[in-house]
Amino acid sequence: LNDCDPSSMSTLAQSMAFIVKHIEGNGRLRPTHSYRSGGYTRSNNDGRDTDSLLRNLFLSDCRNLSSRHHRHISRYNDSVMELWEKLRVKTSETANDMRPKPLVTLTWSIATTYEPLYRPRRNNHANHNQSNGISDYFAAVARSFRNRPDEFTSKQMSNLAWSAMTCGEPHPELLAGISREFVNRRRMENASAVVDSDTDTVTGTDEGNIREEHIDAVTLCTLVTSFAKVGARDEELYGTV
Q1: Is beta strand 201-204 parallel, antiparallel or unpaired with respect to 39-40?
Q2: How far is CA 220 from CA 103, 142, 217, in A?
Q3: Of 16, 42, 165, 216, which one's alpha carbon is 20 to 30 angstroms from that of 154?
Q4: 37-43 long-range contacts, Cβ below 8 Å, gap at least 24?
């Protein structure tokens, strides 16, 4: 991991997050622990064994397995947890040097996997260092965003807000910065827009400084939902949306 550049780190994290998201989405498929000669046997059950294997490798707390298989699978669980911890720490340390896209991708990936990965461990043996670690992570993201908010797209800001909400870390500085930047951009766009009544087109009066964004409905809904779910009564942001 120490040899990975930010782009490679974000690709790795996103790939793992997609796997976790897939098996969480297929949560109705429960592991079928069919072991024969110490191995995992396949059966014709429409791919459930594949989901079960992925669940055991990435999510399972292994309570339902025999001691021998518990030890075998646990090694993979511990390795996955250790990798996410290292990804989180390295991202925290280098957040200011990362371009927005890999930083947001890493943050989204961490948030996507945070709840399913840590939920069984919180239930079985609470680890307070994990919650402290995620708080430190979002503090680092907030500092990075504060230093260059204009480099992030509105969609990226929406993803950061969703990630903070999902991890239960409504970092005040981060959310305030996102709200302020989003609202200011819309004001600048409105102030610079001139409607040509003849062609019915909108152009910017200061195109060198104003970058009008196309913001889709999903981005707007994600942004508002993320703020609302953490109890943020940001009337200015809601009014702008």
Answers
A1: unpaired
A2: 20, 20, 5
A3: 16
A4: 38/68
Q: Indicate whether this model's pTM tops 0.85.
A: no
Other residues' Cβ atoms within 10 Å of the Cβ of residue 160: 29
**Coil vs helix vs strand at 202:** strand
Q: List residues bridging with 201 in a β-sheet.
A: 196
Q: What does the alpha-carbon distance between residue 51 and residue 234 come to, in Å, rounded to a whole number?
A: 41
Neighbours of 59 (CB within 10 A): 20
* Coarse DSSP helix, strand, coil percentages of the chain, rounded to the nearest 5 percent: 70, 5, 25
Q: How far apart are CA 155 and CA 214, in angstroms?
A: 9
For tokens 């929406």, name the residue: 158
What DSSP element (H or E) covers 54?
Answer: helix 48-58
DSSP 213: P
Helix (H) / strand (E) containing 64: none
Phi-psi region at 237: left, alpha or beta (left = phi > 0; alpha = psi -120 to 50): alpha
Confidence of residue 28 (pLDDT cuts 50, 70, 90): very low
85 secondary structure, DSSP code = H
pLDDT digits (tens, 9 = 90+) for 125-156: 444 445 558 999 999 999 999 999 999 999 99
179 touches 186 (CB < 8 A): no
**Are residues 138 and 194 in contact, defined by beta-carbon separation less than 8 angstroms?**
no
Mean pLDDT of the region 152-166: 96
